[in-house]
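User: Quick sanity check before I run a bigger batch. Here is a single chain. Can you write out its predicted 3D structure?
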Amino acid sequence: MQVDIISPEKLLFSGEATSIKMPGVNGAFQVLENHAPMISTLTAGVVEMELAKNNERKTFDINGGVVEIRSNKVSLLAD
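Assistant: Done. Predicted structure follows.
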């Protein structure tokens, strides 16, 4: 699935991932390919991704934000 992580200053990441874990307001959650559409607010914490390329892992610290999941695309707007 396509993942875009954007901060007010710049694009932090754009690429393909097989899974992404995020710190939701009601607890952490994971998104895999073909996830149902949703919008959620995020709290401060760590976003963890497993990239489609070589099963590499990538992490980002965020102070909160919003995520939209739709049609195998994850758009995360981070503080």
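The mean pLDDT is 95.

User: Great, the batch can go ahead then.
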